Here is the input.
Amino acid sequence: MRRLLILLCITVSFSAHAQLSYYNSDAYWTNFCLQANCIKPALTDTCLVFVSNRHFNRDSLRFVDEFVDTTGLKYFVLQKQAEKWNVFQVPTLTDAMQLMPEKRDVVVYAEGMGKIFTANVERALLMRSQYNVNVVMFDYASINTTYRPSRNFRFARSNARLSAPQYFRLLQLIQQARQDKEDWVEHVKVSTFCHSMGNIIFMEMMKHQPYDQLNKTPFIDNVVLNAACVPSKHHKEWIERIRFANKIYINYNRSDWQLKGAHLLTLASQLGEKPKRSRAANANYINFHDQGGRQHSYFLNFPQNDYRMTQEMRDYFAQLFSGNGAVLEEEKTLAKKQPGALETVN
Here is the structure.
């Protein structure tokens, strides 16, 4: 087991540093142009919304840094033209959403460990382009380019926990927009998607924030907890507190090699690896073992990777991100064998 742990750490370290050297280079950062004024993007533009709790330095090439700022949120609209990104800071989430060129279903996306701002942009762009949704990326500092892998693992987990109050605030803003019938959420489905360590943020919110304020009425269509890098033990307790979503999905894969590494590092089985028998009554559990292989980020097709989702997997995530109910074919078969196994209790 010790040899496997060392091998996993070395593999993750090389992979992370190779990506960071690319996404954090001066040449890559020059593709992001912070703008003084904000204009309505053209209908043909590709746009993203980022809600960030990083420190903001307008005069720096790397205008958002690698540490969390728990004093408040910053709102950005990113507009892609050719290979360049125009970045506009705006006062509120509503201001940001009103600048989106098209009205689409919305996915509030929180990533896992190892993402600087520019890497999160790539992930958000892939989700937008592959699923035809408007992406609101919750952008927090999940890696520091000067730290070693073991320290970064602790750094990312700590920052995810620290980010829970800001994520809670973001959901409050969406809840208020629903109540006020703001145009950007009218006749639109809104789902949350947390991947890997991004689930620490959600878990901490449900454990330590006044979640009852969110539970007044469902305003989120789907809560999706994907490859969750949180303990499987006792997950039922905090998930069953969620009443602000119409449906909850927990995607897991017992062959996920990154979660196996997290299991060894934390000495705890991870929710996205293998849920315990005591499961939340209000959640759907979807097993990706047969289709995900050893993959961790099995919800996107990455240009640089050989791995490709099956059409069935893509259809599944497309349904989730459009706010609809969805199961994989194998889960439908399982449901026939075990009546009620995949029912959702709202």
Q: What stands out?
A: The mean pLDDT is 90. The chain has one domain: 1-337. Residues 2-23 form the longest helix (22 residues).
